[in-house]
Amino acid sequence: MKTIKGLVAVFVLSLGSQACASGTLAQLSVYDRTESRELPLHWHEGRAYVVGRPGNEYRLVLRNRSGEEVLAVVSVDGVNVITGETASPQQSGYVLTPGRKLGIQGWRKSLGETAAFYFTPLPDSYAARTGRPDHVGVLGVALYRKKTADPAPIGHIGPQSRSEASDSAVGGAAGAAGVPEASEPVARESAKTQQNASRLGTGHGRRETSRARYVSFERASSAPAQMLTIYYDSHRNLVARGVIRAPVAPAPQPFPGFAPDPVLGFAPERCAGFAPSPRGCRGNPAQSCASAAGLH
Q1: Are strands 94-96 and 26-32 parallel, antiparallel or unpaired?
Q2: What is the pLDDT at residue 255?
Q3: Is the pTM value of this prediction over 0.70?
């Protein structure tokens, strides 16, 4: 197994995570930075969805639930959030220490800066603007356990072999492609333009400080130990797809409660639980509340 370079972000959160996609290794949630709230999950046919509002900035919140370091390879709209390559689980990711929460605010531009995530119509999304619109609307995390050191055989304690030393010195992602995949033909994209125009994607927003550093991480396996996925779209689109039920106007009720006073600023007297007149109970004595005695 090859050793890769992961990133440890300095920006660590202490926020709660209630609406999240959760596994044994980690939890994933989406925090709307514009509205200062965690987006609730809507479950539909085994998938988790959140509602994005166009123009709102957001961040991904990852929490390591395990007692060991894990590597999280993170993708937004099918694009690796660190390298900008078409996402593959074998690429670089963030290393989370046990029990910590990490906020991923945007596309990493350097070890000290990111470009903010924000919800936006598909044509303005980072994936679409770089020729990769097919997987817009999904957030993914591939989680890896760290390989533990094997005990040295009895009678053989010494330096690594040449091949082992070579493997441990490899930096970057094992098997990662050098360039993003080519986009599909223009004619095919044109046929989808009208259909995709209303879908929501993630934009490449303002630059902001977000510090990280490289660390080494050797994966315990070539395949991820766990995958977390959250889908997103606008409220209108999720209602149209049946993910969220459209609001239904309540049916009229025969006994909705007491009749409100039509005179502003006037507090009428209550008459034994009945609706008072605008002038309270000070009308004709024959029509007073006392005449209603014996009613049930």
Answers
A1: unpaired
A2: 80
A3: no
